[in-house]
Write a structure and sequence with these properties.
Blueprint (H helix, E strand, L loop, with lengths): L1 H21 L22 E7 L4 E6 L12 E2 L12 E5 L21 E6 L2 E14 L13 E7 L6 E14 L1
Parallel strand pairs: 4-7
Antiparallel strand pairs: 1-2, 1-5, 3-4, 5-6, 6-8, 7-8
Length: about 180
């Protein structure tokens, strides 16, 4: 039964990624939620996260019922989207072994590796700058506030009482 469920999750993810990239423009920029009905079993992503070095390409849903680590990569509030000057786009996901553990290999990410976020027809290229562990709970983000930042957060694989925080700074942006 788990194999069937895992395959269904993968198929929905794949179909949702195809739908995201096939749209010319995001039709609904309301980040509060995706109000369109999900008739095709597709999650309407507002963005896509790609980390080639750890073989990750995963959609990021609009805020609402799908914006939770128990279903997807979660956007952490307060929201600062990739196009916001000096903003910090913060994402969290599980690091375990389940099919929704999208950050299971985040600990393998190294400084100077590239991370991409596709949002509103722009490909944002970030370069990993720093990684550190913090106690679970309220995370203090150590970053340069004068740079657009992508912060990725997950549980540490070695110590379940810690969280891994990855900081990446915007290097480039281009239309896709």
């Amino acid at each position: 039964m788990n194999i069937i469920n895992n395959n269904c999750i993968k198929q929905i993810d794949n179909d949702s990624l195809k739908a995201f990239f096939s749209r010319n423009k995001i039709e609904n920029k309301n980040i509060i939620s995706s109000k369109k009905e999900n008739k095709d079993n597709i999650i309407r992503y507002m963005a896509v996260l790609e980390i080639p070095s750890i073989n990750l390409m995963q959609g990021i849903p609009y805020l609402g019922k799908d914006n939770t680590v128990d279903r997807n990569i979660q956007i952490i509030e307060p929201i600062s989207l990739p196009d916001m000057v000096d903003g910090n786009f913060i994402l969290a996901s599980h690091s375990g072994s389940s099919p929704i553990s999208y950050f299971k290999n985040l600990n393998k990410l190294k400084n100077n590796e590239l991370v991409y976020v596709y949002y509103d027809n722009v490909k944002y290229t970030y370069i990993v700058n720093n990684q550190y562990l913090v106690d679970k709970g309220r995370v203090t983000i150590k970053r340069n506030h004068s740079k657009r930042t992508l912060t990725l957060i997950t549980c540490d694989k070695k110590d379940n009482s810690k969280q891994l925080v990855v900081i990446a700074y915007l290097q480039n942006q281009e239309k896709y």
